[in-house]
Structure formats: C-alpha cells, structure tokens
Amino acid sequence: MYFKQKNINNDTYILKNLIIFFIVFFTCLPQMYAQKKVKEVVDTIPRIGQWNIRTNAFDWVLTIPNIAVEYDLSNNMHNKYTVGAQVKYNWNTTHKFKPGTVFNVLDARVEGRYYFPTRNKQSYRPDSVKVSLWTRLREDVFTDRWPEPRFWRRYYVGAYTNYASYSIKLGKRGVQGSGFGFGVSYGFTTPLYSYPNGHVIDFELGGSAGFMFASRNVYEHDPESDCYPLIKEKSKGMSLIPYPLITDLRVAFVYRFTALKNKYKVGNINVE
C-alpha cells in the first residue's frame, strides 16, 4: 500500500472542483464587467480577441502538462487589465519497479495582470548627478519610459493566488504535501508569428514568486512490507514557509486572437 495514494485521489477531487469553478467564473465574468458604462467612444477589438491561450514550454520539458487562459477585462484597445487561470498537472507517475520514482505535481492558480508598453524617456539625467536611491528606482527601474523603448513588446506585473500539491521521490525517500500561496508576477510578451486572419502566436518570458502555507510529509520505501511509511520526525503540518519561493518560471507560447499592436495601448477610458 502506497502512502501517497490517498493524496492522489484528493488531488483528483480538488482538480475537478477547480475546473468547475474556473468554468463558472469565466462564464460570469464578461457579464459582470459589461455592467460598467463607457462614457466615450473608443477603439475596440472583437470579443473573441479578449481571450488568450497559453502553455509553458518550460513545464513540458519537466514532463508537466499545462494550460492557461487569460481574459481582457474590456474590449477597449486601451484596457491594460486581465484575469487568468492556469492549471499544471502530471498525474500518477509511479513506476512499477521498487522503490518507485514519483514526480506528481498539481498547481492551479488565478492571476490578475496589468500590461503596459514602454515609451520614450523625455529627459536624461547625467551620471554625474547624484540622486537618492528612491529617485533612481522610480526614474530608472520602476518606470515605463526607457531610453530605447521596445514598442513591439508588452510588459506586465501581476498578483496571483494558488493551490499546489506535490509528491516527489527520486531516491529511497520521498516528500509530499499541499498548500496555498500568494505572490507577484513579472514578465513580457513579444510577437513571434502572425496568421493571415490576424491571430498571432507570441513568446512570453516571466516568472512568479511568493509565499506558501504548506505541509511537508517525508516517507521512504520499506522493502520488507513493500510500503511507504511516514517519517514523523522529518514531517511538518500546515505552516507558513518563512521565505519567498519561486513558484513559476515561464518560457511560454501564447495564442492570441488579436495582435499585441492592437492591445494594451497607452490611454484610459472613464467608466462608472
């Protein structure tokens, strides 16, 4: 009897409920946002153009199937806010030889993003001029004005919350657990290939980091009973991990129904 079997069944139940939640959430979201009235006439994109589909090549290299969807909160070309959902899940990877190798990972998250293009920097400060650290960060780092802006790109910052579960055993001992987390994301997306119908494939590079409330259970293979007993002195219940973790690295491909050049432009609209 495997110690991890109960955890796998629980993950399947949780994954089914998360999929149902995502379907209901993204079905109701356009109706909720549509209740706001736009006060001025603005350029718009087709409704289908508000949807993007993404998959992370980095996770596929690690044998973790994954899919993500993203929805623009308005069909206005100047809208910069999106909300999305991502699921990565590689199911029962247990091998038949003993002790088996296990690499089971589930991660489901909801993320909000703010996209922005870079613009020309209107003034330059000589390197000889001394300024405070805060001024340097504000004017040189956390800004959308660059000396050489990349107009074809769209950068983003975001915040996420996620549920994760894992069971990993590459040797005699294994570790499994689950937990909830939250954190921030950063990255950029750039055009890669355009179709004649206006659809595009973009390349995205980015990452996420944050904190986790998680459990950690250590188990090892017992050849006499052919089971995986828990090592209690090395295990720990649900608790806050006291340091930030890198929770996602993205080398991804994004299928968009509307090209980046027609989205996330500089400008705002008034809504009520």
Quick overview:
The protein has three helices and eleven strands; from the N terminus they run αβαββββαββββββ. It has 272 residues and is an alpha+beta fold. It starts with a helix and ends in a 16-residue tail after the last strand.
Q: Which percent band covers the strand fraction?
A: 35-45%
The CATH architecture can be named as: Beta Barrel
Rg from alpha-carbon coordinates: 23 Å
Please provide the ordered H/E string of secondary-structure elements: HEHEEEEHEEEEEE
The pLDDT mean sits at 80
Sheet having the most strands = 8 strands, antiparallel, barrel
Tell me the name of the CATH class: Mainly Beta
Describe the structure.
The chain is of the alpha+beta class and 272 residues long. It has one domain (5-117, 153-262): Porin, CATH 2.40.160. The protein has three helices and eleven strands; from the N terminus they run αβαββββαββββββ. The protein has helices spanning 5-33, 57-61, 133-141, and strands at 51-56, 66-72, 81-90, 102-116, 119-120, 145-146, 154-169, 173-194, 200-220, 236-240, 245-256. Strands 1-2-3-4-7-8-9-11 form an eight-stranded antiparallel beta barrel. A two-stranded parallel ribbon has the order 5-6. Strand 7 (154-169) and strand 8 form a beta hairpin. The longest helix is centred in the N-terminal third of the chain and has 29 residues, at 5-33. The N and C termini lie far apart (59 Å). Mean pLDDT is 80; it is low at 1-6, 34-41 and 268-272.
